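Archive transcription. Copying these from loose printouts into the bound notebook so they stop getting lost. Printout 1 of 2:
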Amino acid sequence: MKLLTHNLLSSHVRGVGPRGFPLRLEATEVRIIPVEFNPDFVARMIPKVEWAALLEAADNLRLVEVPKGPIQGYEQDETFLRKMHHLLLEVEVVEGTLQCPESGRVFPITRGIPNMLLNDEETQT
């Protein structure tokens, strides 16, 4: 699971609502998987990033050189865009868990795929 994916996921356990974000990320296996650099794509993703969630995830993974937020003129700053490209698209959580901050529900990450399926009792109203 890429950190970009993590930054977009939230828990949909019944009764949680917007308090199901951000999911707490715990990783037991992380890999760096090179991806072709596309500065235009990364620049378009920057406004969508929830920075507090990204910084917490990066801290949990003990990543270094993580930008603390967008910089002025980031669209033309290749150094910034490459750091964000690496962080969002090349850091891959292969095994681990995501935990809902409100309900405590744990979702497994297996072979890079988060399983966000809920049991019937978690979805009934």
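Printout 2 of 2:
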Amino acid sequence: MPLLCKDKEETGTDLRHFDLQYTAAVKTASLEPTAKGIAALGSLLQKDAKLVTILEAPTLSPADKSAIVAELQKNAGASGETVKNFLETLSENNRLGLLPGVCGKFSELMSAARGEVEMVVTSAQPLDNRTLNRLEAAVSKSSYVGTGKKLKVKNTVNPEIVGGLVVEVGDRTIDLSVSSKLAKMNKLLTDTL
């Protein structure tokens, strides 16, 4: 499966590590357990900012790195051989600091492999489940989601949009926010004066 880089952050070492992890998981027929282990590692790293800082420290001794890898496996429940080998490889190459980015990219790759399309709905206030379900039903019938694809809905809150919604599906954005309409009206007024 070829990987496409959308921005500069996805190139280089980060991309190579999650691509190699995916390939290793496919070859050993352990894709789903590996995905669960990597997802657990990702959520563990999101919850603990201090852990990310420790992983980025270039002065860790080999003993410290081994202890960190063992703790990461234990706390994340990532007992698979592929995840263990992956963590050890990052540790040996002093690349444990890349783990948060690799976990995120691996999750994106797994979603694509499963045929999932992420829809991020940004609103000024949290949306209720009924509204999110209605949006999901409407967008899943549109051309924004390919045939046979599953839609993953995520609601984010940004009070700066004032009202309305910003819907992002894949690489497309539908901006129905009050702030963007105000900005357009303001531009029209200043351009005509």
